[in-house]
């Protein structure tokens, strides 16, 4: 006999929303994060044995109370913004299903984020690091794969998930282009620089992979290399070659954008290359370049 407590209408709505995400081919990582945030959202309304409200009963007052509870936990602004985005997406789903008449979560104010300039390796630091990887100073099972990872991250400005998700049929080796599947499954074409293309050709020619494995970058089992695996490879080389444990894949993506901008590339072109939905996201690199210029001025000008 099943004695489990029946799910509330709010819990059923969360379950239906997550199922809808899976059907829309959202990544496992995305579904897992939404599930965790929405489980905590429902948990807020069931604390102390309370019966959670139905979706239509979640009004502005309840949402503000929940949001205040997040602030009382001293959660960071990025975390609160993420949880609020998950709840907004849930009620967008409820609106489409006719469970609510308005998405009241969209009426809540989003915590403002201070502009944070990313840490970016200089051109010399990036080139020195990649040259060090190419020199083969570390005993590694697949040195050509490791070098290709560095060349593609810096040469194409990819997110780590985009790199690990690359398949063989995404690459045009003759023309030097790669089809990139970015956030929300949006695709874009990115040119592959000459050095990166040469290294990539060498890796693909000797690539170790299980039969039928489509991934460009594989692990020692011959399966797809994960995001975590890529981060581990970068950290290993960064510590060994420069003693810097802070390097991560996004450092090279930031460097790609910043160095293009410094060389005179158009901001909208960089936006397309990075796959940013909004130009405002790309504009932080303008601020970064201005910051570098001011630092040079302060250091060099006799009247600074």
Write structural notes for this entry.
With 304 residues, the protein is mostly helical. The protein is elongated, with a radius of gyration of 23 Å. The mean pLDDT is 87. Helices cover 56% and strands 4% of the residues. It starts with 8 loop residues before the first helix and ends with a helix. It contains 13 helices and three strands, in the order H-H-H-H-H-H-H-E-E-E-H-H-H-H-H-H. 27% of the residues are buried. Helix 6 crosses helix 10 (249-262). Strands 1-2-3 form a three-stranded antiparallel β-sheet, with no helix packed on it. The chain has helices at residues 9-23, 28-46, 60-72, 77-96, 123-134, 143-156, 160-164, 194-206, 227-242, 249-262, 267-274, 279-282, 284-300; strands at residues 171-172, 177-181, 187-191.
Produce the secondary structure layout.
Elements: H1 9-23, H2 28-46, H3 60-72, H4 77-96, H5 123-134, H6 143-156, H7 160-164, E1 171-172, E2 177-181, E3 187-191, H8 194-206, H9 227-242, H10 249-262, H11 267-274, H12 279-282, H13 284-300
Antiparallel strand pairs: 1-2, 2-3
Strand proportion: under 5%
Helix content: 55-70%
Strand order of the largest sheet: 1-2-3
Unreliable spans are: none
**Contiguous helical run count:** 13
Number of β-strand runs: 3
Radius of gyration in whole Å, from Cα? Answer: 23 Å
SSE series: HHHHHHHEEEHHHHHH
Rounded average pLDDT: 87
- Structural shape: elongated
Structural class: mainly alpha
Distance between the termini: 80 Å
- Describe the largest sheet: 3 strands, antiparallel
